[in-house]
Design brief:
Shape: globular
Bound molecules: zinc ion
Distance between the termini: 87 Å
Helix content: 55-70%
CATH superfamily of the largest domain: 3'5'-cyclic nucleotide phosphodiesterase, catalytic domain
Strand content: 5-15%
CATH class of the largest domain: Mainly Alpha
CATH topology of the largest domain: Catalytic domain of cyclic nucleotide phosphodiesterase 4b2b
Pathway: Purine metabolism; 3',5'-cyclic GMP degradation; GMP from 3',5'-cyclic GMP: step 1/1
Number of helices: 18
Pfam families: PDEase_I (PF00233)
Order of helices and strands: EEHEEEHHHHHHHHHHHHHHHHH
GO molecular function: 3',5'-cyclic-GMP phosphodiesterase activity; metal ion binding
Protein name: High affinity cGMP-specific 3',5'-cyclic phosphodiesterase 9A
Number of domains: 3
InterPro entries: HD/PDEase_dom, PDEase, PDEase_catalytic_dom, PDEase_catalytic_dom_sf
Length: about 500
């Protein structure tokens, strides 16, 4: 209690003859302290500086730096030109510094239990730095693949500790999955324990779920982050629709297991490619949902290992039910079956009976389908990067199809598709009709899931209008050029 003062350092600076006292925590990083010195001397916070004592000797800037007094203040000297001429190098340096800061803070706060506050500070530091870099450099070096991330109005939240705030965040469709780094998927025991809490007792997720993680490939779209998103959306739908009261615990277990496993070992290229290219998977599964069959098979191969058998405590009859239920749900994620499954649900929804097994199975199929393609339910800043990931995967496929002389779907062709054209039809004709059907049963999803879909549709339609207008202008320009050429 009494050691508060020792947690702080006090340094005196000479700012144009005036003494400026600077106080900082001894847990601050050198980068933080530099920034503080810059601010104290009226410099922009990312200025490269050196610190000189009264004899002109350079003083290292770090939390253990030597004390001084009001009578021997340090002088802050900005370093200009020379080594940081290249803007890009500057940008990289800043990012590297932040990354270092992030990892050093992380290892420290891992021990100290104050990580949440610091991670949030790092995050806002990164945001501020990016904004500052952008404002200083206009757009000259931030083009193409160095685009700035969009401003986020989605609330951020601590994650490792799974505080009540995080649990609440995970329950919302607006959850921002991009705030989780890929290394954060390796869950600590603490997290595993906490993850169990909001769901129910039967959930026996052990650290060897890494078997699941390791069996997702590092694809642009169909990777573990996508699996995480789908599972989180499932969790939030269960919570939102109060399904734990309507379904049995085994049904909830099936929903969550299927979500976690639904894209295991996805090989990037979709069923159409598998079938057209006559791949091993297509041959093995006779062209019938080869990918979904494969995801299921990999899942149950993992569960068959004694270390990974999360169902070990179920009796054979219950296991059979879980296995069958999970397989049914994963197979339902084949979009080739979209019309069939949605039609079947539409026939049941007006007289839905939670005691009718066929009705419940059909609803579970629709739920996993909703979660699987739910990115556009999320706020724009969260959803939009997924479109880029998906297009990247599509383009990988269409490039390969072209190279192998196979048919190419227009929606995958980099020559034909744009973000708005890709999204508008999908939102209008696939997502909205499906979510509106689910809304008949669970009106509470309108505000948090259906409304964002409508807004996303409107936004992409606006974007398309802009695209069209730009194309029109381009077309006119080139026409004029040709006409001008002919006159000469
Ligand atoms: Zn999926």
């Amino acid at each position: 209690m009494g050691s508060a003062s020792s947690a702080y350092r006090m340094i005196y600076l000479d700012v144009d003859g005036r003494i400026q006292k600077v106080v900082f925590s001894r847990f601050c990083s050198p980068c933080d302290i530099k920034e503080l010195f810059c601010t104290a001397t009226g410099l922009s916070r990312n200025t490269t500086i050196s610190l000189l004592d009264s004899t002109g000797a350079m003083v290292s800037i770090d939390p253990t730096m030597p004390n001084n007094s009001e009578r021997s203040p340090y002088k802050v000297v900005p370093i200009t030109g020379g080594q940081l001429a290249d803007k890009e190098e500057l940008f990289q340096n800043v990012l590297t510094q932040v990354a270092e800061q992030f990892s050093s803070r992380w290892s420290y706060f891992r021990l100290e239990g104050m990580k949440v506050v610091e991670i949030e500070k790092c995050r806002s530091d990164i945001k501020k730095l990016r904004e500052e870099m952008a404002s200083r450099n206009n757009s000259s070096f931030l083009d193409d693949n160095k685009k700035l991330t969009p401003r986020r109005d989605v609330p951020s939240y601590p994650k490792y500790m799974l505080s009540q705030q995080t649990i609440d965040a995970l329950r919302k469709p607006a959850f921002d999955v991009w705030l989780w780094e890929s290394n954060e998927y390796h869950l600590s025991q603490e997290t595993v324990e906490a993850l169990r809490q909001p769901i129910f007792d039967v959930w026996q997720w052990e650290p060897n779920e890494l078997c699941i993680h390791d069996n997702y490939r590092n694809n642009p779209f169909h990777n573990f982050r996508h699996c995480f998103c789908v599972t989180q959306m499932m969790y939030s739908m269960i919570y939102l629709c109060n399904l734990q009261e309507k379904f049995t615990q085994v049904d909830i277990l099936i929903l969550m297991t299927a979500a976690v496993c639904h894209d295991l070992d996805h090989p990037v290229y979709n069923n159409t490619y598998q079938i057209n290219a006559r791949t091993e998977l297509a041959v093995r599964y006779n062209d019938i949902s080869p990918l979904e069959n494969h995801h299921c098979a990999v899942a149950f191969q993992i569960f068959s290992q004694p270390d990974c058998n999360i169902f070990a405590n179920f009796d054979p009859e219950a296991f059979k039910q879980i296995r069958q239920g999970t397989i049914t749900l994963i197979l339902a994620t084949d979009m080739a079956r979209h019309g069939e499954i949605l039609d079947s649900f539409k026939q049941k929804v007006d007289n839905f009976d939670f005691t009718n097994e066929e009705h419940v199975t059909c609803l579970k199929m629709v739920l996993i389908k909703c979660c699987d393609i739910s990115n556009e339910v999320r706020p724009m800043e969260v959803a939009e990067p997924w479109v880029d990931c998906l297009l990247e995967e599509y383009f990988m496929q269409s490039d390969r199809e072209k190279a192998e002389g196979l048919p190419v779907a227009p929606f995958m062709d980099r020559e034909k598709v744009t973000k708005p054209t890709a999204q508008i039809g999908f939102i209008k004709f696939v997502l909205i009709p499906m979510f509106e059907t689910v809304m008949k049963l669970f009106p509470q999803i309108e505000e948090v899931m259906v409304q964002p879909l409508r807004e996303s549709r409107d936004r992409y339609e606006e974007l398309k209008q802009i695209d069209d207008a730009m194309n029109e202008v381009q077309k006119k320009k080139s026409e004029n050029l040709t006409m001008g050429g002919k006159k000469k």
